[in-house]
């Protein structure tokens, strides 16, 4: 979702997932949750029409932003120019799914990423950011509530899945508050929620090979209704699963992150040269 008061002539575009935030109380609540400070290295993804942009700029003094919609870039840049006393907005048009965070972070664990994200790119974008997590201090996103619920879901929940495991492997997930549809124009058909993701430092669970870990998780949840002995049959046998402390008759939604790490490490050991 993009933020901002709708300018004359601009219609929300479905292909960009645009629902413009107009509720100032919600804006203030989000900014308080982020707690921007002077000289923070902030990156806003999808600033839209600037509902969050100017308050963040005022607090931090400088803000990087990436906006996909070409028609929104010039008006937002003009708003920032009129409010130049607040600081410098470094705005670029582009696709955040292709962004190299090294362009925005001067050192490890320094970048604070914020944004109102459209549902159609939320999961791919979060995975893209997690690949560069060594540069990220924290992330604050407004998403569809269902997606936030999935990220925070515990093992055993019907909505616990690949996204839950991968995000919880890398981050502490703090579900902050919900946002009603009426806070946006046009109003979406679902509630939204704001979530804070804190990359784990130090990371308590670390797979020997994270590519193998990702493969195990994706394969298991690709057939989530099947027992692990069937869904992972091409990767691990039942003996390997039991040796890892995992019941082969369990289904993937029953396993915590530690169990998936154990399975991945068993597969990595099998794959490594003897």
Give a quick account of the main beta sheet: strands, pairing sense, barrel closure.
7 strands, mixed
Number of domains: 2
- Top-tier CATH class of the largest domain: Alpha Beta
The coarse silhouette is elongated
Round the Cα radius of gyration to an integer and report it. Answer: 21 Å
Strand arrangement, largest sheet? 4-3-2-5-6-9-7
Question: Roughly what fraction of the amino acids lie in strands?
Answer: 15-25%
What is the total tally of β strands?
Answer: 9
Structural class: alpha/beta
Mean pLDDT: 91
Helix content: 25-40%
Question: What do you see in this structure?
Answer:
The protein has 274 residues and is α/β, with parallel strands linked by helices. It folds into 2 domains: 14-199, Rossmann fold, CATH 3.40.50.150; 210-271, Helicase, Ruva Protein, domain 3 (Orthogonal Bundle). Helices cover 36% and strands 19% of the residues. Strands 4-3-2-5-6-9-7 form a 7-stranded mixed beta sheet, sandwiched between helices. Strands 1-8 form a two-stranded antiparallel ribbon. Strand 2, helix 2 (53-60) and strand 3 form a beta-alpha-beta unit. Helix 4 packs parallel to helix 6 (162-170) and helix 7 (210-222) packs across helix 10 (257-271). The longest helix is centred in the last third of the chain and has 15 residues, at 257-271. Residues 1-10 and 12-17 have low confidence and may be disordered.
């Amino acid at each position: 979702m993009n933020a901002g008061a709708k300018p004359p002539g601009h219609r929300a575009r479905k292909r960009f997932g645009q629902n413009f935030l107009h509720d100032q109380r919600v804006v203030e609540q989000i900014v308080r949750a982020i707690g921007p400070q002077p000289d923070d290295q902030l990156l806003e993804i999808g600033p839209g029409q600037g509902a969050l942009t100017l308050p963040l700029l005022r607090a931090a003094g400088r803000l990087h932003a990436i906006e996909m919609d070409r028609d929104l870039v010039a008006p937002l840049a003009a708003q920032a120019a009129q409010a130049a006393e607040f600081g410098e907005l470094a705005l670029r048009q582009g696709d955040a799914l292709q962004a190299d965070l090294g362009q925005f972070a001067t050192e490890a664990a320094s970048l604070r990423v914020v944004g109102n994200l459209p549902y159609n790119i939320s999961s791919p974008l979060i995975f893209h950011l997690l690949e560069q997590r060594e540069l990220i201090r924290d992330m604050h996103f407004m998403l569809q509530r269902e997606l936030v619920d999935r990220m925070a879901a515990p093992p055993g929940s019907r909505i616990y899945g690949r996204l839950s495991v991968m995000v919880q492997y890398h981050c502490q997930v703090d579900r902050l508050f919900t946002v009603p549809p009426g806070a946006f124009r046009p109003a979406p058909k679902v509630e939204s929620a704001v979530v804070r993701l804190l990359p784990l430092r130090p990371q308590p669970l670390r797979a020997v090979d994270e590519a193998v870990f990702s493969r195990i998780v994706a394969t298991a949840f690709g057939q989530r209704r099947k027992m692990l002995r069937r869904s992972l049959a091409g990767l691990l046998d039942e003996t390997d699963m039991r040796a890892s402390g995992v019941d082969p008759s369990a289904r993937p939604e029953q396993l915590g992150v530690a169990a998936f790490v154990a399975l991945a490490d068993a597969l990595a050991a099998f794959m490594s040269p003897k």
